[in-house]
Amino acid sequence: MGKDYPLPDIDGSEYLVIHLTNLGWVSSNGMGITAISFTEIKNYIDVTECSLTGEEALILRKMSEQYCKHVQDKNPKTKAPYTTS
Predict the structure, then answer these.
(1) Which residue of 11, 40, 42, 83 is surrounded by the most CB atoms within 10 Å?
(2) How far apart are CA 55 and CA 46, in angstroms?
(3) d(Cα 35, Cα 28) in Å, to the nearest integer?
C-alpha cells in the first residue's frame, strides 16, 4: 500500500535541488542505482568551489537516498512524492 507523505516546505532551499541536479541525483554501482556518496559530494564542492555546509551535504545525500528509494519502489500503488492526494 502506498503511503502519503507530506512534503517539507523548501522555500529558500531550492538551490539544493539545483546542486543535486548538477551532481546527477544518483550513482551507478554496476548493479543499478545507488545514492550519491559523500566523496562525490565533496568532489563536487571542491571542483565547483561552491560553499555548502556539512548539513547541506547531509541533506543532498538524504535527497539522493530518497530518490533512489522511490525509483526502485515496484509497488504500483505508491504515489509520486509530489502528489497531494
Answers:
(1) 40
(2) 16
(3) 8
Q: Find the farthest-apart pair of alpha carbons in the chain and give their distance in angstroms, rounded.
A: 43
In whole angstroms, what is the distance from residue 62 CA to residue 49 CA? 21
Question: 3-class SS at 33?
Answer: strand
Neighbours of 29 (CB within 10 A): 10
E strand or H helix at 47:
helix 38-48
Q: Report the percentage of the chain scoring pLDDT > 70.
A: 80
Statement: the pTM of the whole predicted model exceeds 0.85 = no
> Cα–chain-centroid distance for residue 42?
15
